Amino acid sequence: MKSVTAAYSGTFDPVTFGHMDIIARASVMFPKLIVAVGLNPSKNPRFSIDERVALIEASITEAGLDNVSVQPFDGLVVDFARDNGVTVLVRGVRNGTDVDYEKQMAIMNRDLFPELDTVMLAPAPAYAHLSSSLVRELTGMGAPVEKFVPAPVLPELLARFGRKS
């Protein structure tokens, strides 16, 4: 049986417990998982790509996920996959809208790179409502966000919004 390398791509601005749930579960399914952090300046990220990579690395270390690595990328995820020996993309889907969008992307990605499959994972129910944009919005409005982000992320997130930990 050949060794499969999977990638979970996203902006992760910031990484949340919902992302970490998908990462942890995918790390059990695949011998090697790369968290591919996309540049995507159109999303106006609060954290630089290097900061996002560092926060995810710290969160992965805290979770003890030894078969997971983190890499930044710019451009098409199919090019990243091809360049890094990735044959499976992992995608998190929270609702029917996400499923419809990810299905369309999976078909397009497969058309561009026929060796690439996509696996969609629903998050644990406790995290099904989470998104990075919602966490950023709540943080900016002063809401408690400790239960939404890993410990290494919290002080950086609060500081980004001028809040004390």
Strand fraction: 15-25%
Detail the poorly predicted runs: none
Total domain count: 1
Order of helices and strands: EHEHEHEHEHH
What's the average pLDDT? Answer: 94
Characteristics of this structure?
165 residues; Rossmann fold; 18% strand; alpha/beta; five-stranded parallel β-sheet; 41% helix
The gist of it:
This protein has 165 residues and is α/β, with parallel strands linked by helices. Helices cover 41% and strands 18% of the residues.
Characterise this structure.
It contains 6 helices and 5 strands, in the order βαβαβαβαβαα. The protein has 165 residues and is of the alpha/beta class. The longest helix is centred in the middle third of the chain and has 17 residues, at 96-112. The chain has a single domain, classed as HUPs (Rossmann fold). The model has no long low-confidence stretch (mean pLDDT 94). Helices cover 41% and strands 18% of the residues. A 5-stranded parallel sheet has the order 3-2-1-4-5, with helices on both faces. Helix 2 links the parallel strand 2 and strand 3.
